[in-house]
């Protein structure tokens, strides 16, 4: 095979550049070309052609001419087999909607730098339509809507991963996206419904036994919607009173595909006696429905389905939309079906269940995930915590306080004299100068001690008159409110 020779091409504006073939891409099969910058003179382009040929022959041909989209295409060709379909769809959507409009097909990857990316991230957080190169924010039909920080972070990590591979393969010298700083992750505080708020929701849902049982199992198991949607009767362990959660449902193009759980874990969850009774009642209901159709309920039929014979899994999006309408009618704060997982985690921890058990029930790899994303502040737990602290903190003893200052020592002495009858109720205390001489203190110290006794309600003190004893000291009584 003859060695590549390349050629010099001329632009319509009269400028020249060299073009040399660098073989074919082993992944895409497309031919790769090295191109020199445009020059005004043809001899200069010829010299550039010889230089490019030398680089190809020595194996030192630069690969820095790749565009941003070419870098992403090469990255996706490698990582796609290792990612789930949902991950691939979401990543391709972000590239299509936010990377491609901004950088186009011809933007060189080597031109990207950290400052450019951080400015772009800030623009997306002010308005997601800034993905377009030219956007008129003053147009009447336009409303600025910021892109969530979580989505911007996903774009950042997609670019970082792609450029990391490009550096590894020798296409680029520096991973510029890795030098950029993504926006901070803004965590939405969980806002699960309370048991009182869920009561009318469940009561309405039970009008349809299939739908009511679905919500009940979602609450009891605190499972993800996809896990409950593909649950089969063979997963229910009647003797053990447990249910196996080993698969999840992924909806795509109107169909539900059974895939592994999020962390590829299988868990055998315990069920309470009431839930087992409800499951038995629900199974009899399913068998009667199939019997009316002239078929038998299959041994591995789905628990929940929109098909009358339970032959197909319930679509996760259908469950989400139906719950949103139900929650909206009952005026819940959060209308997301996922909030029921928050409810389960919060109620379990509030009831004193240890974190490790709650973590395992929800299928989390780390307990920190359970605490950060799935538990809400509970007034009941806060009240219980307050009661526990109140039992451990030393009780206040207003009568037993060690005096430190002169006026406090005098106050304690006078209070003791009132309590032992030296100064009975109705009597008057000596004059300030007499008390000062007796206790070897200043008149100001006596005045402050008298004011302290007055604040305790023991004496009545008026200017230019002796203080009169009104009552003996008694610690304040804490009276609980009725009810």
Automatic annotation (TrEMBL):
<dbReference type="InterPro" id="IPR050090">
    <property type="entry name" value="Tyrosine_recombinase_XerCD"/>
</dbReference>
<dbReference type="InterPro" id="IPR002104">
    <property type="entry name" value="Integrase_catalytic"/>
</dbReference>
<dbReference type="GO" id="GO:0003677">
    <property type="term" value="F:DNA binding"/>
</dbReference>
<dbReference type="InterPro" id="IPR036388">
    <property type="entry name" value="WH-like_DNA-bd_sf"/>
</dbReference>
<dbReference type="InterPro" id="IPR010998">
    <property type="entry name" value="Integrase_recombinase_N"/>
</dbReference>
<keyword id="KW-0233">DNA recombination</keyword>
<dbReference type="InterPro" id="IPR000524">
    <property type="entry name" value="Tscrpt_reg_HTH_GntR"/>
</dbReference>
<keyword id="KW-0804">Transcription</keyword>
<dbReference type="Pfam" id="PF00392">
    <property type="entry name" value="GntR"/>
</dbReference>
<comment type="similarity">
    <text>Belongs to the 'phage' integrase family.</text>
</comment>
<protein>
    <submittedName>
        <fullName>Integrase</fullName>
    </submittedName>
</protein>
<dbReference type="Pfam" id="PF00589">
    <property type="entry name" value="Phage_integrase"/>
</dbReference>
<dbReference type="InterPro" id="IPR036390">
    <property type="entry name" value="WH_DNA-bd_sf"/>
</dbReference>
<dbReference type="GO" id="GO:0015074">
    <property type="term" value="P:DNA integration"/>
</dbReference>
<feature type="domain" description="HTH gntR-type">
    <location>
        <begin position="404"/>
        <end position="472"/>
    </location>
</feature>
<keyword id="KW-0805">Transcription regulation</keyword>
<dbReference type="InterPro" id="IPR013762">
    <property type="entry name" value="Integrase-like_cat_sf"/>
</dbReference>
<keyword id="KW-0238">DNA-binding</keyword>
<dbReference type="GO" id="GO:0003700">
    <property type="term" value="F:DNA-binding transcription factor activity"/>
</dbReference>
<feature type="domain" description="Tyr recombinase">
    <location>
        <begin position="188"/>
        <end position="387"/>
    </location>
</feature>
<dbReference type="InterPro" id="IPR011010">
    <property type="entry name" value="DNA_brk_join_enz"/>
</dbReference>
<dbReference type="GO" id="GO:0006310">
    <property type="term" value="P:DNA recombination"/>
</dbReference>
């Amino acid at each position: 095979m003859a060695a590549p020779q390349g050629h010099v091409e001329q632009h319509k504006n009269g400028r020249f550049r060299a073009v040399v073939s660098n073989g074919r891409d082993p992944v895409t099969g497309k031919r790769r070309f090295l191109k020199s910058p445009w020059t005004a003179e043809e001899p200069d382009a010829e010299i550039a052609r010889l230089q490019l040929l030398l680089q190809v022959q020595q194996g030192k041909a630069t690969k820095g001419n790749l565009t941003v989209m070419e870098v992403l295409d090469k990255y996706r060709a490698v990582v796609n087999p290792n990612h789930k379909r949902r991950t691939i769809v979401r990543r391709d959507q972000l590239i299509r909607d936010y990377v491609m409009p901004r950088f186009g097909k011809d933007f060189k990857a080597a031109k990207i730098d950290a400052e450019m990316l951080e400015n772009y991230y800030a623009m997306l957080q002010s308005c997601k339509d800034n993905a377009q190169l030219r956007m008129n924010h003053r147009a009447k039909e336009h409303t600025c809507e910021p892109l969530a920080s979580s989505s911007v972070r996903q774009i950042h990590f997609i670019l970082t991963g792609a450029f990391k591979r490009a550096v590894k393969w020798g296409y680029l010298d520096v991973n510029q996206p890795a030098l950029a700083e993504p926006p901070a992750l803004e965590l939405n505080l969980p806002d699960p419904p309370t048991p009182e708020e869920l009561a009318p929701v469940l009561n309405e849902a039970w009008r349809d036994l299939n739908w009511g049982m679905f919500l009940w199992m979602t609450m009891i198991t605190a499972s993800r919607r996809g896990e409950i949607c593909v649950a089969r009767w063979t997963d229910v362990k009647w003797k053990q009173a447990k249910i196996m959660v080993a698969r999840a449902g992924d909806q795509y193009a109107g169909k539900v595909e059974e895939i592994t759980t999020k962390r590829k874990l299988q868990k055998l969850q315990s069920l309470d006696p009431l839930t087992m009774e409800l499951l038995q009642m629900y199974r009899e209901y399913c068998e009667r429905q199939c019997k009316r159709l002239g078929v038998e309920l299959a041994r591995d039929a789905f628990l929940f389905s929109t098909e009358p014979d339970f032959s197909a899994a319930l679509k996760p999006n259908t469950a989400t939309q139906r719950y949103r309408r139900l929650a909206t009618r009952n005026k819940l704060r959060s209308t997301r079906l996922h909030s029921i997982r928050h409810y389960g985690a919060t109620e379990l921890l509030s009831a004193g269940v240890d974190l490790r058990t709650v973590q395992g029930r929800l299928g989390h790899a780390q307990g920190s995930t359970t605490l950060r994303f799935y538990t809400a502040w509970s007034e009941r737990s806060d009240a219980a915590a307050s009661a526990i602290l109140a039992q451990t903190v030393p009780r206040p003893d207003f009568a037993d306080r060690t005096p430190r200052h002169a006026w406090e020592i005098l106050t304690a002495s006078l209070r003791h004299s009132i309590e032992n009858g030296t100064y009975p109720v109705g009597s008057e205390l000596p004059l300030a100068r007499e008390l000062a001489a007796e206790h070897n203190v200043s008149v100001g110290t006596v005045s402050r001690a008298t004011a302290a006794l007055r604040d305790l309600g023991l004496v009545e003190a008026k200017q230019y008159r002796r203080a009169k004893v009104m009552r003996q000291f008694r610690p304040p009584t804490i009276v609980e409110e009725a009810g």
